[in-house]
Design brief:
By secondary structure, the chain is an alpha+beta fold. It contains three helices and four strands; from the N terminus they run ααβββαβ. This is tRNA (guanine(46)-N(7))-methyltransferase.
């Protein structure tokens, strides 16, 4: 015995019904097209960038080449330009910083501290220039 249809199946049935309804709306006795129903669509708060993309990321913080992110604090180790080391370490990391309000507030309090803000989501709106 089968249970009730799952959401994907309901959504497909709904889409097929809308296509059939639009086709009949063009003929005599056509009806009004309804807006999409929320129950047929799954909303997600965020997407995990590591599962949605093929990003290469270091196994540990020690494996990360920080000199690409902070070139002003990079110092060539042997003078040939190949290997670089950081002259100062990143001490504060704000994960999910949004527009960076906390980092902007902390910057005057800790002027000699390197800070990093990470925000993974695409903005759902566009700011005016």
């Amino acid at each position: 015995m089968t249970g009730p249809p799952n959401k994907r199946q309901k959504r497909e049935e709904y889409k097929k019904a809308q296509v059939d309804f639009k086709a009949s709306a063009n003929g005599p006795g056509g009806g009004k097209i309804e807006l999409p129903k929320k129950k047929f669509y799954r909303q997600r708060a965020h997407a995990n960038p590591f599962s949605d993309h093929a990003l290469t990321y270091p196994a540990s913080p020690g494996d990360l080449n920080w000199t690409t992110h902070y070139p002003a604090f990079a110092k060539n180790q042997d003078g040939d330009g190949a290997a670089s080391v950081m002259t100062q370490e990143v001490e504060v990391a704000d994960i999910g910083c949004g527009f960076g309000g906390l980092l902007v507030a902390l910057a005057p309090l800790f002027p000699e501290t390197l800070m990093l803000g990470l925000f993974f989501l695409n903005p759902t709106y566009i700011l005016p220039n």
